[in-house]
Amino acid sequence: MSQVPHLKIEDLKVSIEDKEILKGLNLEIKGGEVHAIMGPNGTGKSTLSSAIMGHPKYEVTGGSITLDGEDVLEMAVDERARKGLFLAMQYPSEISGVTNADFLRSAINARMEEGKEISLMKFIREMDKKMKVLEMDEAFMHRYLNEGFSGGEKKRNEILQMSMLNPRIAIMDEIDSGLDIDALKIVSQGVNNMLSPELGVLVITHYQRLLNYIKPDFVHVMMQGRIVKSGGPELAEKLEAEGYDWIKKELGIVDETVGSEV
Fold first, then answer.
1. Share of the chain above pLDDT 70, in %
2. Can you tell me which residues the record assigns to a coiled coil (predicted)?
3. What is the count of structural domains for the chain?
4. Quick check: is 12 in a domain?
5. Are 204 and 45 in contact (CB under 8 A)?
6. Which residues have CB under 8 Å from 39's CB, separation 6+?
7. Is the model's pLDDT at 94 over the cut of 90?
8. Ordered DSSP codes for 19-53
């Protein structure tokens, strides 16, 4: 595809177990842009990523999500992935019996034109090159997917998947949680190596420290199921220094919590 990626979310409303979590959220991400969403616990940040990817637990009750003009909400979960949406999860699942190499090659082939597959040699070369950037041992190729991995290893594996799949829009849900500073630098470098006009990135995080390594173009503050304030990197710095109280006072927000993030 030559078209610059374009994810557009308009007036999105999402509920879980009849409790409304997102209450009219608007967000637009284009290729070459890095957006960061910050906010207190329980404001719907992880709900947003799950809704974009089509998690069945979350019911979209209003609004729209489009990718390159196509209706994402009409797509099955696997179709969303094939169209170029990718989610690096905070808590990746372990899958016994499926090696990293087999999983990734199958995922790449699923995104290719019908009847085409990536050659084994090209796949091995690409995977080897990208594992070196993430300082991952070759043994990872043959280990079962995330089984027995440490938290840091799982996060590196998510970024490896992202780099191999070449998504159009990548969502990273708190990939910095549980990482020490060295692992954070390595994971961030892996992400930075992928930044291009063909990729739009959404980073969901609680902490400024991640944004010291993955530099955002736009920072959004989420409260009460909506984006209530947007700005540049300086907004994240102010949040780190002063917390969220000044925003709540500025906007007259009494209670920012909308529900538990699942």
1. 96
2. none
3. 1
4. yes
5. yes
6. 45, 221, 222, 223, 244, 256
7. no
8. EEEEEEEEEEEETT-EEEEE--TTSSHHHHHHHHH
